[in-house]
Design a protein that fits this description.
4 strands, alpha+beta
C-alpha cells in the first residue's frame, strides 16, 4: 500500500463527525454497563440455586457495579467542513456545517506531522441517574 493510500485509510478510520465519536463512547459505556449487569444477574442465579439446593446456608446477594460518573477528556484535531444541501432539482440551496474530529494519537501525529499543541480538548461527563418511577394512582 502506497503512502497516499495509507493516509486515506487513516483519514477514513480516524476522522468522523464529533457527534458520532461521542455517540460511540456512550454506546461503549452502555455496552460495558450491560456486561456488568449480566454478570451480576448470572452470579445471583448461581447463589439462589445454591441456597435452594442447600449448598450454602445464607441468603447471599450478588454485588452490583455501575459507573456512577465518567469523565471524558479527549484531545482532538477539529475541522469544519461544509456539506451542500441540494433541493429536488439538484440545485445547491445552502451549506450545512459539519464539525469533524480526529483523535490525537501516534498514527495521526506521524501521518500528518501534526503538532499536538494545536489540538482541541473535548470534555464530557456522563452521570448515572436513577430510573424514572411511575406513580400509580389508586
Amino acid at each position: 500500500m502506497g503512502d497516499e493510500a495509507g493516509k486515506k485509510v487513516v483519514i477514513e478510520t480516524l476522522v468522523a463527525p464529533l457527534g458520532s465519536i461521542l455517540k460511540s463512547v456512550g454506546a461503549s459505556l452502555a455496552e460495558a454497563q450491560h456486561a456488568l449487569d449480566e454478570n451480576s444477574i448470572a452470579t445471583q442465579k448461581v447463589l439462589d440455586l445454591a441456597v435452594e439446593n442447600g449448598e450454602i446456608e445464607y441468603d447471599l446477594q450478588a454485588p452490583w457495579y455501575h459507573f456512577p460518573e465518567v469523565d471524558l477528556e479527549l484531545k482532538m484535531a477539529l475541522s469544519m467542513k461544509a456539506e451542500a444541501e441540494v433541493d429536488k432539482k439538484g440545485k445547491v440551496r445552502g451549506y450545512k456545517p459539519i464539525l469533524k474530529s480526529a483523535p490525537i494519537n501516534a498514527a495521526y501525529k506521524n501521518t500528518y506531522n501534526y503538532d499536538a499543541s494545536g489540538s482541541s480538548q473535548i470534555k464530557a461527563k456522563i452521570v448515572s441517574i436513577p430510573p424514572v418511577s411511575k406513580i400509580q394512582e389508586e
